[in-house]
Input
Amino acid sequence: MEITERIKALLFNPKVAWDEIAQENIPISKILWSYFFPLLLIPVVATFVSYGIIGYRVAFFGSVHSYELGIRSAIAMLVSTIAGTLFSTIIIDVLVPSFGSEKNFSKALQLVIYSYTPSLIGGIFYFYYATSLLGIILGLYGLYLLFLGLKPMMKISDDKQASFFIISLVVTIVIFSVISFGLNEVLTSNISYNI
Output
């Protein structure tokens, strides 16, 4: 399926999209290179533009920007999204046997990648600090996609779907927050700014 068709299906008809995805036998490498990484460029480039070119407002100083900060922030976005995807996949794959289903790393990775679709597309709003909240709000739709995808992708029963979703979500948020915080601290220290 073409990337635009898959995006449209996930955003506007997710139940049907998940049923189709669950039946597919596409290599993970193809999903990564033809879907995930192209979409990942959206928030990465937008983050660079925001911090490196446009800048963000700081009280009493006005707009602050730095190419170095832009590059470091873009790298942080890239690494944290890839790490978050990997850790979310591992968490789902490790937890799924406790909820009466079988481990399947490939299906778990597909579930996470396709659930990130709204967040990656919403990354276009990161180009300017004042609109970045819109990207975050759009990204929340990905949680709904993740919830809908649990049953067809991981074969979670209806009665266990909500509890599995909540547990995996909490663990993922904690891990992702630690990764993001650590990366931001490492990558944004000792930077000179243009005001």
Summary: Residues 158-187 form the longest helix (30 residues). The first strand starts at residue 56 and ends at 58.
